[in-house]
Amino acid sequence: EAGALWGGRFAGGPSPELAALSKSTQFDWQLAAYDIAGSRAHAKALAAAGYLAPDELDGMLAALDALDADVASGAFEAAESDEDVHSALERGLIERAGTELGGKLRAGRSRNDQIATLVRLYLRDHAGAIAERIIALIDAIAAQADAHPAAILPGRTHLQHAQPVLLAHHLLAHCWPLVRDLERLADWDARANVSPYGSGALAGSTLGLDPMLVARELGFARSSENSIDGTAARDVVAEFAYVAAQVGVDLSRFAEEIILWNTREFGFVTLDDSYSTGSSIMPQKKNPDIAELTRGKAGRLIGNLTGLLSTLKGLPLAYNRDLQEDKEPVFDAVTTLEVVLPAFTGMVATMRFHTDRMAELAPQGFSLATDVAEWLVKQRVPFRDAHEITGNLVKYAEERGIELSEVDDAGLASVSPHLTPEVRSVLTIEGSVASRDNVGGTAPQRVAEQLAALTERVRAV
Ligand code: ARG
Known about the structure:
Blueprint: H1 16-22, H2 25-28, H3 32-48, H4 54-73, H5 85-102, H6 111-147, E1 152-157, E2 160-166, H7 167-192, E3 194-195, H8 211-217, E4 222-223, H9 227-232, H10 235-261, E5 269-270, H11 289-313, H12 327-350, E6 352-353, H13 355-361, H14 369-378, H15 383-400, H16 409-415, H17 429-435, H18 444-460
Helix pairs in contact: 3-4, 3-8, 4-5, 6-7, 6-12, 6-18, 7-10, 7-18, 10-11, 10-12, 11-12, 14-15
The protein binds arginine.
Residues 24, 84, 111-112, 115, 319, 321, 323-324 line the site of arginine.
């Protein structure tokens, strides 16, 4: 059987049905370059332990380099009969190094420790690329905040007008979760930075190979302290899927707002034509598909995480073939983020804000009522009474169909003697925003400091 890694004790080859179910080259081929890197490192460990003579090591490394080049160029591909990437590459190695030399490489390793190592190599590589794309998005959001230092947005809770805030403050509120996602990726890497190579099938090896030699060659800081854990654990893979899902959810919440802001009713933003789509029937339509796809892909990323956790839930130690199902969810998570993040970033970078419209709506809905209540507190009215008085003022204005700033002196006095005309000093959106000047508040000076702190945090990751 060409390429099979097992078969000695079998009467014949696998049935076509088994082969079809078992086959994984259609997705694990993405690990080919990492598999070859692992083989180079393993060859060095075999040589260090005396199982390959120096010239054999040279021949092995040359054959692996040739195979690597042929994989990269597409000259070497998985064959129909190859069960997985490991079988295919051993076939390719033997074609290049001969049966005798090529047949020596597999000593002391198992596909179980190989695959556990390769997934980590793949994820650590892509985590770097994803982190860069997250940073690009943070930069794009922060640049919009920086470009609109004075714009005021109706801040909402329960989607109802609550208190005016700076647009920049709101935009930066979408940056902080992404900063934490970056930090999560960095934290994750501390746990992913361990090589399972050397764990063998589950119990280690009798050959005296040095797992740390392989770990160092592959850029890991340590090798697994327990060979069973090394081959059977996938929590590091699931944790990556969680971080990817969290990024998806963080983007999705912003996406939802952009979709709302882009409606005629809100009218807060216009999306650039090159980041919008049309309708096949309604000629006037311009749709926020990037934001919608981002929101939709968040569901997919959550599905990848829950699917993977479900696969792991009932598995006894050590390796079980179920573990082959760990790869497609995280590969999909990586590909999904790698297409979503740049599109979302482009949309945000080119989005135009209609700050007049935001400013017009910001004071509506009695969003300055808290300012009135806190002004009363500054006049030494107990907050309980201040809250009650302001509530009465809101009722007074609502009954007359006017805003708080439009209540005249007599009206104010009729609600409460504490409501002197001076209260109007806090009834502007600019004054309201400027007066929330505690650390973390929405006052322009604080938001400028926040932007600087954010930039610093991103640089420190
Ligand atoms: N393709 C398998 C996986 O992805 C690795 C091979 C281990 N196979 C085995 N029969 N022990 O997990």
